[in-house]
Design brief:
This protein is about 45% helix and about 10% strand. It is α/β, with parallel strands linked by helices. α3 (about 55-70) packs across α4 (about 80-90) and α5 runs antiparallel to α7 (about 140-150). The longest helix has 16 residues, at about 55-70.
């Protein structure tokens, strides 16, 4: 059983550190760890993200990756945005998953998250945050601004996957 790791909104392969390796070793199972477009050493964003960026990742990008690698019924392990992508994929993608491990998923947009992102965006320009993130992202503006700016768009405030939750019938932790 392969375990696929889906990173958070500012994550990457490097920021998972040794967690995927430890999980794979403990479970004696292979792990897939990758950085989404715009993150880590991946290609940059081809266009500005839309309010449906997590749906696009879950229903187009992830299925294409799993298909290309011939991975069937993985266990999806996601954190934050990655956990939401895992939930969307499990609920609505045509490819089945074995199980889900979701750490702090977003099911709807919370004001506390938006307020926090607005503060972090301000510090991106006023502190050394950009330089610190550049250690983990080749295209740091794609990673940070691509994430922060979509979360701060007024139309994103209505984003929700609450309607998808009843469709998840896989084991979920």
């Amino acid at each position: 059983v392969l375990h696929a790791f889906l990173h958070d909104g500012l994550g990457s392969v490097a920021l998972w550190r040794d967690f995927p390796r430890r999980v794979a070793r403990r479970l004696n199972a292979p792990a897939l760890v990758y950085s989404r477009f715009g993150y880590g050493a991946s290609d940059g964003l081809g266009a500005q993200r839309t309010p449906r960026f997590m749906h696009e990742e879950a229903l187009a990008v992830l299925p294409a990756l799993l298909d290309r690698l011939r991975i069937e019924r993985p266990v999806l392990i996601g954190h934050s945005d990655g956990a939401s992508i895992a939930l969307i994929h499990a609920a609505a993608a045509a490819l089945p998953v074995r199980a889900l491990v979701c750490l702090a998923p977003h099911v709807f947009v919370e004001a506390v998250c938006v307020d926090s992102i607005a503060r972090i965006r301000k510090s991106y320009f006023e502190t050394d945050l950009r330089q610190r993130l550049a250690k983990y992202h080749a295209r740091v503006d794609d990673a940070f601004l691509g994430w922060a700016d979509i979360w701060l768009r007024p139309e994103f405030l209505a984003w929700s996957i609450e309607d998808l939750m009843p469709q998840i019938d896989q084991p979920l932790l």
